Amino acid sequence: MNKNKKSVSIKIPELKCVEFRVESDRFNYGRFTLSPLRKGQANTIGSAIRRVLLGEIEGTCITRAKFNNISNEYSAIIGIEESIHEILMNLKEIVLQSDAYGIREGSIYVVGPKEVTAGDIILPPSVRIIDTTQHIASINKPIILDISLQIEKGRGYIIQNPGYIIQNPNNSNYKDEFFSIDAAFAPVQNVNYSIHSYWSENETQEILFLEIWTNGALAPKEALYEASRNLIDFFLPFLNAKEENRDGLPISHTSTDTKGIDFNQMYIDQLNFSTRIYNCLKKANINTVSDLLNYSGEDLMKIKHLGKQSVKEILELIRNIGIDSPGNTV
């Protein structure tokens, strides 16, 4: 027996939340560790997850505003301390949360004197305000402030043209014009990561430290989950890529025989659903293909924000991969 033979132990990396703070409604902080990792892995993971956290997490914000009888964003309203431009900048900072896609309508209708805050915004049920105390305007005279708002869900940061106005296609009158607002969708404000190396079991191992700051629309742990899911979605095409032989012809390994497959271990991440469908299914606590097969087409239609076209896409995809379930017939 060779006494000098090295024993290699394989440990699965474990994610831990070592610190979590809610300093205000719009300031959440989380610190996480991932270990043990082999040399070089921490930087690979840290760099990728940071980019996704900052640029790929969806958020909701006000993207357009219409003021009654106002056509210039640098106009001033007698009786209101802020200019139209300043009010637009304040609306840009309002932190919202929503599961709904597409344009949603909101409004502000208040009579002064009054300090107008985010709590005065009238919103549809699908949209929620994170901090109702956020300042919008100060009215010091008995006048009416009437603003129509458009709210959207998206990702990243979209810069609008200064003073850009969107006209109502049905009416060119300036009373129906919307001012565009720079859209800061990203709920993650900042991300830092650092790496600690140490010697263990005859090799260099690493610990990844990850710090995440959010605006309150998502908790840092929720943002990390969303980023991880996005990374999985990015790499699914590589897993599904066709293998080619020496002549460049595809070699198909696809089989429609699903006998023996444990659908409890097959997750919906693997089915290439759109982000919208995936989010709806996850919120309905559908995590595996086994969970999904328990739903008929009628059951799926009852899931919030899951429309007829989305249900049709789900059932068609299931049939295409060779899964036959009596409950999922059209």
TrEMBL record:
Its main location: plastid. Residues 1-241 are annotated as: Alpha N-terminal domain (alpha-NTD). Residues 29-241 form the DNA-directed RNA polymerase RpoA/D/Rpb3-type domain. It is an enzyme of class 2 (transferase). It is found in: Plastid, Chloroplast. Coiled coil: none annotated. Its EC number is 2.7.7.6. Residues 261-330 are annotated as: Alpha C-terminal domain (alpha-CTD). It catalyses: RNA(n) + a ribonucleoside 5'-triphosphate = RNA(n+1) + diphosphate. It comes from the Eukaryota. One of its GO terms (biological process) is DNA-templated transcription. InterPro entries: DNA-dir_RNA_pol_insert, DNA-dir_RNA_pol_RpoA/D/Rpb3, DNA-dir_RpoA, RBP11-like, RNAP_asu_C, RNApol_insert_sf. GO terms for cellular component: chloroplast; DNA-directed RNA polymerase complex. Keywords: Chloroplast, DNA-directed RNA polymerase, Nucleotidyltransferase, Plastid, Transcription, Transferase. GO terms for molecular function: DNA binding; DNA-directed RNA polymerase activity; protein dimerization activity. Pfam families: RNA_pol_A_bac (PF01000), RNA_pol_A_CTD (PF03118), RNA_pol_L (PF01193). HAMAP family: RNApol_bact_RpoA. NCBIfam families: rpoA. DNA-dependent RNA polymerase catalyzes the transcription of DNA into RNA using the four ribonucleoside triphosphates as substrates. In plastids the minimal PEP RNA polymerase catalytic core is composed of four subunits: alpha, beta, beta', and beta''. When a (nuclear-encoded) sigma factor is associated with the core the holoenzyme is formed, which can initiate transcription. The N-terminal domain is essential for RNAP assembly and basal transcription, whereas the C-terminal domain is involved in interaction with transcriptional regulators and with upstream promoter elements. Belongs to the RNA polymerase alpha chain family. This is DNA-directed RNA polymerase subunit alpha.
